[in-house]
Design brief:
nine-stranded mixed sheet, globular, 486 residues
Length: 486
Amino acid sequence: MLATEDMELSTLPLSLDSFEITIFSLVSAAVVILFVKSCSEDKGVSESSGSAPVVEHRGSDFNNAVIERCPILKERYCPPRLWGYNTHLHLILFGAFGHSHDLAACGIDDDMQTVRAPDGSTVSFDLFTVKGREYADDAPWIIVAPGICNNSQSDYVQTFVAYTLVNFPAWRIAVLNHLGTDPRVPLTTARIFNVGCTESYDLVVQYIREKWSSAPLVSVGLSMGGNIVLNYAAEKPERQKFFRAVISCCQGYDIMAGIRRVPESSLLQFYVYVMARRFLAMLSRHKDAVFEHWRVEHSRSCQTEQAGKEDDEQSDEVLLGSYTKDMHCCNDSSTECYAAMVKYGKTSVKPAVVTEVNEKAVFSCSLMSGIFEEFMRRIGKFASVEDYSTFASCSNYMHNITDVPVLLFNADDDPVATDVCYQFPRDHIDINPRSMFIHTQHGSHMAFYNGGWLFPNKHNVLDQILTQYIDAILHCTADQEKEETR
């Protein structure tokens, strides 16, 4: 569920008010209770527990060849025996401790780049390579979109980078820093990160393609980033030719489905509360730039209404131009993108004419559903969260992705992106013969601790599956190209 993604609990603001201290105390007590319950309930967890990932696909020769090159898909995945089978403990401990990684110790260089978007926004991304290595122009690039409020410095992103480049040093990795999430890069316009828009990711892709035109590319979206990469491939199908594969990990595919699930679970409400706090902490760093724009924008809109200068019968072309000019989840080049979305069935939602963004209401939100209502849908000028969800959720557009291999990956026990969303990847494998849906019995949300009794093994299963799949894709697509040129 896109409304409930990315629980890096360790990145909560360090200055806690009394309410947050109370919440922290309650969570600590919950961890103890869950731990005792996990230890006391014998559910048959043994050395033989666990199961191999489930791989769903149409059985094409291409997919069969990819699977043959991924031995981990035939191995049992067993999380830590003492606590790994309790999904909430799994997630909370992941949020508290993360995974072990040290890019410098691994000999990995981190080179941050910035590019200026047409609307003046400064988009940054980090290029990760093995220190001192000479790369051929055709060395692969993996282009990563992280989860909500995350960037190249986030724990699970750096863990993926470290594992990948240590085991596949011939590859290179580019990681998008979502607008406003990286304290190294100030906002230069009012535009800030938004879960439904792909403009920043497009700038990274174009930068890589222009500088290394012969390099094969693989698109990877982690958590909510999976929504971005699928949207990116769907809104302009010609983009699918850029990539050897598109990979989406641990996302829920549909915003409204996630919002509707929140009342079902107190723990889910807590996860969404943590996400909301993190988003508001990010937004508060940029509130002067963001909210000053919307105060001016709303005042101008009201004056225009009062003067009677607005034409209710304006054409769709004028409406689209106004929409993309003022919608600060997009840049000035988005008219073409929006028209492409309409052409390919991505959206038929019309933007609202006047939308007020109330700073006090935004910072009063306690859950992500409130942020979607008070901020996300309003900066996009949508009349409702439902309309915004239709525009932003990849579930509505995945049917356009037919010309590139796709991996959709989830965990059955993910408390954030639960298996109620599985209809979307299953529908997609029916229309794309080179797509596959892989899901594991355990793993929680982005955690996937592996093996051990109390302490897990060093490497998580998610990174192992992703890198084996990417390696297989690079080999199989290269073999396919050779056959086609004979």
